[in-house]
Amino acid sequence: MNVEFRNPNIKLVLLRVLVIQILGIGAGLIYTVIFIEQLLLGEVEISEKQDDITYVSLKVLQNRIQSKSKILLIDGRSEYAYHRGHIPGAVNMPYIQRDYFSQQLLSDVARETPIIVYCSGKNCNTSVKLARSLSKKFGFIHVRVFEGGWEEWVKGKNSIQTSFDR
């Protein structure tokens, strides 16, 4: 297709538009590659909050623990992080291994048992995913998320428990 332009300014304008589009596409691709790489390396965490999740504050969690209320406290972080330090009384159920751990930990737990799940901190959505899984897949009724997670627990100078066996 051969198009002839009578006005030489139109060629210049179209060339500029084409260059701007190419630069815009290139910048977008570079941003996308950098963002995806950061996301895959764990440098960017996405926090998701939905209406179907109930959150508990640090104060509520402290009160539940101090009153010796019957709760199941679940740490959704990796086994390594859990063993380095966790909230006293918490059991470890890494989200990626939830099916394996659920068979070991949850087989004798009544579906009405209050459960509080936590992970690294506010920007960690592992606890939210785990809470949804415990509710929907495993049928637990009273599942809550301690949104502040390990980060807020430690920052509040609360007691911690470690469990290295080595």
The helix count comes to 6
| Proportion of residues in β-strands | 5-15%
The topology string of helices and strands comes to HEHEHEHEHEH
Strand order of the largest sheet: 1-5-4-2-3
Question: Could you say what the CATH topology is called?
Answer: Oxidized Rhodanese, domain 1
Count of structural domains: 1
Spans with pLDDT under 50 lasting ≥5 residues?
38-49
- Approximately how much helix is present in the residues? 40-55%
Q: Give the distance, in angstroms, between the N- and C-terminal Cα atoms.
A: 75 Å
Rounded to the nearest angstrom, the radius of gyration is 25 Å
CATH superfamily placement: Rhodanese-like domain
Number of strands: 5
Largest beta-sheet characterization: 5 strands, parallel
Which overall shape is indicated by the principal axes computed on the Cα atoms?
A: elongated
Structural class: alpha/beta
- CATH class, please? Alpha Beta
Give keywords:
single chain, 166 residues, alpha/beta, Oxidized Rhodanese, domain 1, 5 strands, 10% strand, elongated
Q: Topology of this protein?
A:
Elements: H1 8-40, E1 54-56, H2 58-66, E2 72-75, H3 79-84, E3 91-92, H4 98-105, E4 115-118, H5 126-136, E5 143-146, H6 149-155
